[in-house]
Design the sequence.
């Protein structure tokens, strides 16, 4: 997890995602690649119709020029190595284009105090199209406590397996790791196997089993992370076809909308 891509754009989630990216990079000895996106005029027009603050393309350019200066100054005074890419274009396509040779992408989960940018769609497309680990950060987060408590939402799927493997460099620093198994009858790989896998990487973990009863898995995960006082959650994303998740709801969608802590997500095979 040495190459960490982070979106730079002046919106309500920027400070949270940049701080989380810095925290992860410090923990794992990583390098930040900052993709600074100025939105193209067509998208700025959509932004205006949705109540955004940028009234003209020139305003967007001026705002992002100031954002570039302040963020570069902040990073240059920090202890994390970084490089910088300036891009003008569509936000999602710009991030997808920059995602080659990346170990982790840091964006936001859904932004709740802003309609733009569409952080939920950005995270979803990065997961499904780029097939990269994504750290989705709530806009009010103050960073990511790498030495805190981690909760792994385990269903034994290919996505959960991929998330577990990808998160190992981060999990090595956690003070406590809990594997949450929500018993819904879909388990393919036992939670005990996940614990053994982590133990071989020097990461002790406890297993917590919960029954769904009348709740959906997402509700159980949200309750468990509060109970465990988790600082972040590791989970597979879109374990079912994404169109099914969108039609019927799923744990991924709910966590991207409601999670109060950062989500480390991977979409497997």
Sequence:
């Amino acid at each position: 997890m040495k190459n960490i891509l982070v979106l730079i754009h002046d919106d309500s989630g920027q400070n949270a995602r940049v701080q989380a990216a810095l925290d992860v990079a410090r923990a794992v000895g990583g390098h930040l690649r900052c993709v600074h996106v100025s939105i193209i005029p067509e998208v700025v027009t959509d932004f205006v119709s949705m109540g955004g603050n940028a009234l003209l393309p020139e305003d967007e350019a001026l705002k992002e020029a100031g954002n570039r200066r302040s963020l570069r100054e902040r990073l240059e005074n920090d202890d994390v190595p970084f490089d910088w890419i300036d891009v003008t274009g569509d936000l999602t396509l710009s991030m997808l284009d920059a995602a080659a040779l990346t170990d982790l992408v840091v964006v936001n989960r859904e932004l709740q105090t802003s309609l733009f940018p569409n952080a939920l769609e950005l995270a979803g497309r990065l997961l499904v199209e780029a097939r990269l680990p994504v750290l989705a950060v709530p806009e009010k987060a103050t960073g990511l406590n790498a030495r805190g408590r981690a909760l792994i939402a385990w269903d034994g799927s290919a996505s959960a397996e991929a998330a577990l493997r990808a998160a190992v460099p981060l999990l090595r620093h956690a003070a406590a790791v809990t594997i949450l198994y929500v018993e819904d009858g879909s388990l393919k790989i036992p939670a005990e196997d996940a614990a053994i896998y982590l133990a071989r990487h020097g990461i002790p973990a406890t297993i917590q089993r919960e029954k769904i009863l009348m709740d959906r898995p997402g509700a159980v995960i949200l309750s468990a992370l509060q109970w465990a006082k988790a600082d972040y959650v590791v989970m597979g994303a879109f374990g079912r076809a994404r169109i099914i998740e969108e039609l019927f709801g799923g744990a991924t969608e709910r966590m991207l909308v409601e999670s109060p802590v950062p989500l480390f997500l991977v979409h497997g095979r």
